[in-house]
């Protein structure tokens, strides 16, 4: 399943479900509102959802590679970045509406988990943010059950460029710092989960160089701590 | 509410009920109040206790007594988005 941040919608407004005062709304029936008459799936945060098959992801990836070749990774990253940037604005709005507190005043880890929860509900996979390295100005994000990698299978290279862009766009907008993100380990390379590095562009460039040299995620992590 | 047979459960099987009766009329050992009086049904308080023990077994305040001190909650991590952003350095966009 995939979503797009809502835009002005000409259709009649959907009434919000009762029990809005509860925040534990990630059960299937709470989070999604299926409207058969309108043919819509609106989620708790009033975002429209689309049901897509794995064929869509394969088609998107294959079609893009056929059109632009190796640049497909950059295109997917850019799409993700734009998505993350837009979503940061939308997330800030619904977060404040839901919890009555601004994103700047919130506990960071709660804020991040709250942001990713809907993605998990929509099928984008679970995540884990490693904040141990935050004092050094970078952090790792582990992604379990990536929708893209799971679909494309073992292709021997990182494929989750959309996720990397999404993280880069979201964190750049939320921190007002220019941050980049790169996937240093991927399920599509035979690993058990995907791992992303988030940080300033100089660190991302260094990691990119080490990946080109054939360094593993563990080696990259070790070298970053030595910088 | 106290039953006609204080301390006796009238819903138990007949054999169990009859075995539990004090056939030999031996003096009953006074029962001390339980550690958690609120969990003892009022109807089960033995009437062989002293008046002081009997009334002490009532949870008059309605508040469950704590057997252990309340653990202190850890202070909330004040780490916010701005703190996080500052770690990356560089100029603001």
From TrEMBL, chain A:
Domain of life: Bacteria
A Pfam match: V4R
4-vinyl reductase 4VR domain residues: 138-200
Species of the source: Thermostichus vulcanus str. 'Rupite'
InterPro entries per UniProt: NO_sig/Golgi_transp_ligand-bd, V4R
Matches recorded under PANTHER family: DNA-DIRECTED RNA POLYMERASE SUBUNIT I, SLR0144 PROTEIN
Region (Disordered) residue spans: 1-22
Name of protein: 4-vinyl reductase
From TrEMBL, chain B:
Superkingdom of the source species: Bacteria
Protein name, UniProt field: Uncharacterized protein
Organism, scientific name: Thermostichus vulcanus str. 'Rupite'
């Amino acid at each position: 399943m995939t979503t797009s941040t809502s835009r002005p919608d000409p259709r009649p407004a959907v009434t919000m479900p009762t029990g809005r005062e509860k925040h534990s709304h990630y059960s299937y029936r709470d989070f999604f509102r299926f409207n058969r008459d309108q043919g819509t799936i609106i989620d708790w945060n009033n975002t429209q959802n689309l049901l897509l098959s794995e064929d869509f992801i394969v088609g998107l990836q294959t079609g893009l590679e056929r059109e632009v070749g190796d640049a497909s990774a950059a295109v997917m990253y850019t799409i993700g970045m734009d998505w993350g940037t837009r979503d940061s604005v939308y997330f800030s709005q619904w977060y404040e509406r839901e919890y009555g507190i601004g994103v700047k005043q919130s506990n960071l880890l709660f804020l991040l988990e709250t942001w990713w929860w809907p993605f998990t509900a929509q099928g984008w996979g679970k995540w884990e943010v490693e904040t141990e390295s935050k004092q050094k100005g970078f952090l790792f994000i582990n992604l379990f059950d990536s929708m893209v990698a799971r679909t494309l299978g073992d292709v021997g290279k990182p494929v989750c460029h959309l996720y990397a862009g999404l993280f880069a766009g979201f964190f750049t907008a939320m921190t007002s710092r220019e941050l980049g993100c790169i996937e240093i380990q991927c399920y599509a390379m035979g690993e058990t989960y995907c791992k992303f590095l988030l940080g300033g562009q100089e660190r991302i460039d260094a990691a990119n160089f080490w990946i080109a040299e054939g360094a593993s995620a563990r080696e990259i992590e070790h070298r970053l701590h030595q910088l | 509410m106290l039953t006609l047979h204080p301390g006796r459960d009238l819903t138990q099987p007949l054999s169990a009920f009859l075995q539990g009766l004090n056939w030999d009329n031996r003096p009953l050992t006074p029962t001390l109040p339980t550690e958690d009086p609120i969990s003892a049904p009022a109807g089960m308080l033995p009437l062989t206790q002293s008046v002081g023990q009997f009334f002490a077994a009532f949870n008059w305040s309605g508040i469950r007594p704590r057997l252990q001190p309340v653990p202190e909650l850890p202070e909330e991590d004040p780490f916010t988005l701005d703190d996080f952003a500052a770690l990356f350095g560089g100029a603001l966009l």
